[in-house]
Amino acid sequence: MAVLPIYKLPDPVLRQEAREITEINGDLQRLIDDMAETMYSAPGLGLAANQVGELQRLIVFDVSHKEGRPRKLQVVLNPCIVAGEGEIIREEGCLSVADFCADVRRHAQVLVKGLDREGKPVEITGEGLLAVVLQHEIDHLNGILFIDHISRFKRGLFLRRLKKQAAAR
Ligand code: NI
């Protein structure tokens, strides 16, 4: 297993749509293990394949530690939100968006369908933090970042700061 480099804004891979996974092979299993290690070492609550430069519909996440339970890695291939309801506003950050957090409004409960790492169908019902993480990571696979959900004003402030930092480098 290896810790992979995490791609950060403004890398274009974060704005691309990931492709459906059609073949489950050794390379994919290695990518899953590496993404898990990368997420835990960051540390982060979730990671989407775009963030390590792979345009495949794959997310890994684990909110159990944050909720006081032992570590439990979850992996979903080709995840899809099939239902969402309620509303939650929570502060989010992202391993691909350095030094910035903001409140984001999302569904408070979601039902996600996809495949597990062996290709068997899975359904995950997420509430609260898990619902937020699922929506955040699935957004990544569609080239969407949490800053796309905040006000234009706040996003403008952030993007100007990012530009300044890039110019100073
Ligand atoms: Ni993220």
Quick recap:
By secondary structure, this protein is of the alpha+beta class.
Folded structure, characterized:
This protein has 169 residues and is α+β, with helices and mostly antiparallel strands. It has one domain: Peptide Deformylase (Alpha-Beta Complex), CATH 3.90.45. 27% of the residues lie in helices and 30% in strands. It is built from three helices and seven strands; from the N terminus they run αβββββββαα. It has helices spanning 26-41, 129-141, 152-168, and strands at residues 46-48, 58-61, 74-85, 88-94, 97-106, 109-115, 121-127. A five-stranded antiparallel β-sheet has the order 1-2-3-6-7. It has a two-stranded antiparallel ribbon with strand order 4-5. β6 (109-115) and β7 form a beta hairpin. The radius of gyration is 16 Å and the shape is globular. Nickel (II) ion binds at residues 94-96, 136, 140.
Helix content bin: 25-40%
- The CATH class label is Alpha Beta
Q: Topology as H/E string?
A: HEEEEEEEHH
CATH architecture, by name, is Alpha-Beta Complex
Number of helices: 3
Shape: globular
Query: Which structural class is indicated by helix and strand composition?
Result: alpha+beta
Strand neighbour order, sheet with most strands: 1-2-3-6-7
The bound ligands are: nickel (II) ion
Bin the strand percentage.
Answer: 25-35%
Rg estimate, integer Å: 16 Å
The overall number of domains is 1
CATH H level, superfamily name: Peptide deformylase
What's the quaternary structure here? single chain
Per DSSP E runs of 2 or more residues, the count of β-strands stands at: 7
Output mean pLDDT: 96
How far do the termini sit from each other?
32 Å
Please give the largest β-sheet. 5 strands, antiparallel
